[in-house]
């Protein structure tokens, strides 16, 4: 069954039913109610299967709506960042060979650039046990309204108090981040590693119909990135 031409009255009644505070007062502004109703009116044709997917994945739906509507909450201080994921270093694979084996066992695709990065002498595994808290942030959330370079992104995150990720965080995050949405790409904020032809590269994590990928992304300082490009950095712990 395919649903189309959604009944606006149903959407409006749903809004009114859910827009009550415990005091019985209307909590939703009329403009907000009209906006929600308009979204309902203009939903594309969706199958029951598609609708159920979005019902079961509200966070992904919220992110898609943010991306479509360009809703950006600019970060102005480090306290506004929330921990996205925590990675424990020094407790998993101890060598690059161990790391490659773990990636293969988890059926992670490794592109040629990432493979070359793993084999470079600048890539090392962390020997000391400790945890790092990670945040993921878009270029727009950093306050940029136009395309900017990697250098500008790094300078801005440093001003906000964020730190670059150790080199092995990218591959270890790839092992942990198994529920990455299809078509998402995130880049690792890290010291770039020299790859083929002496170019600089950083790790990127992506997902497509072929599965999960650990890839290499050009990390030259003056490469430009768009507002919706997302990066991972370390959020230092207090004390």
Explain what you see.
The protein has about 240 residues and is of the alpha+beta class. It has two domains: about 1-55, no CATH class; about 80-235, Mannose-Binding Protein A, Chain A (Roll), CATH 3.10.100. The protein contains eight helices and twelve strands. β9 (about 200-210) and β10 (about 210-220) form a beta hairpin.
CATH topology of the largest domain: Mannose-Binding Protein A, Chain A
**Largest sheet data:** 8 strands, mixed
Q: Assembly state here? A: single chain
Tell me the strand percentage band.
15-25%
Average pLDDT over all residues: 83
Order of helices and strands: EHHEHHEHEHEEHHEEEEEE
Shape: globular
Helix/strand-derived class?
alpha+beta
Q: What is the tally of beta strands?
A: 12
CATH class of the largest domain equals Alpha Beta
Assign the CATH architecture of the largest domain. Roll
Q: Domains counted in the coordinates: how many?
A: 2
Number of helices: 8
Helix content: 25-40%
pLDDT < 50 runs, ≥5 residues: 1-25
Q: Radius of gyration, rounded?
A: 21 Å
Entry keywords:
single chain; 239 residues; alpha+beta; Mannose-Binding Protein A, Chain A; eight-stranded mixed β-sheet; two-stranded antiparallel ribbon; 8 helices; 33% helix; disordered N terminus
């Amino acid at each position: 069954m395919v649903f189309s031409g959604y009944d606006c009255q149903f959407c409006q009644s749903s809004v009114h039913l859910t827009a009550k505070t415990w005091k019985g007062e209307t909590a939703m502004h009329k403009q907000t109610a009209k906006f929600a109703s308009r979204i309902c009116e203009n939903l594309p044709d969706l199958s029951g299967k598609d609708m159920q997917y979005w019902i079961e994945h509200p966070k992904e739906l919220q992110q898609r709506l943010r991306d479509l509507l360009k809703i950006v909450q600019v970060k102005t201080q480090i306290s506004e960042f929330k921990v996205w994921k925590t990675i424990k270093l020094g407790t998993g694979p101890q060598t690059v060979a161990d790391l490659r084996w773990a990636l293969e066992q988890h059926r992670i695709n490794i592109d040629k650039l990432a493979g070359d990065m793993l084999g470079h002498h600048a890539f090392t595994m962390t020997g000391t046990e400790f945890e790092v808290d990670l945040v993921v942030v878009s270029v727009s959330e950093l306050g940029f309204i136009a395309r900017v370079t990697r250098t500008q992104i790094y300078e801005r995150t440093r001003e906000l108090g964020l730190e670059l990720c150790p080199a092995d965080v990218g591959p270890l995050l790839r092992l942990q981040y198994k529920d990455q949405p299809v078509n998402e790409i995130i880049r690792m904020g890290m010291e770039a590693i020299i790859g083929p032809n002496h170019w600089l590269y950083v790790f990127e994590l992506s997902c497509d119909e072929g599965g999960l990928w650990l890839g290499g992304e050009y990390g030259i300082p003056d490469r430009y990135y768009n507002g919706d490009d997302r990066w991972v950095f370390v959020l230092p712990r207090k004390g």
